[in-house]
């Protein structure tokens, strides 16, 4: 996915609720150099929680 274009890379977003659920997404490292935090749905606890970039 991100093999040839190193500016956009694949990152894993892991749930802060501790369920171990994660999403995969892409981000532009030039525009967002720090860790990404998005509020998304965690189906294990059936709530929206913060998902942080896992490195």
From TrEMBL:
One of its GO terms (cellular component) is cytosolic large ribosomal subunit. The keyword Ribosomal protein applies. One of its GO terms (molecular function) is structural constituent of ribosome. PROSITE patterns: RIBOSOMAL_L33. GO terms for biological process: translation. Keywords: Ribonucleoprotein, Ribosomal protein. Pfam families: Ribosomal_L33. Belongs to the bacterial ribosomal protein bL33 family. HAMAP family: Ribosomal_bL33. This is Large ribosomal subunit protein bL33. It comes from Microlunatus soli. The lineage of its organism: Bacteria, Bacillati, Actinomycetota, Actinomycetes, Propionibacteriales.
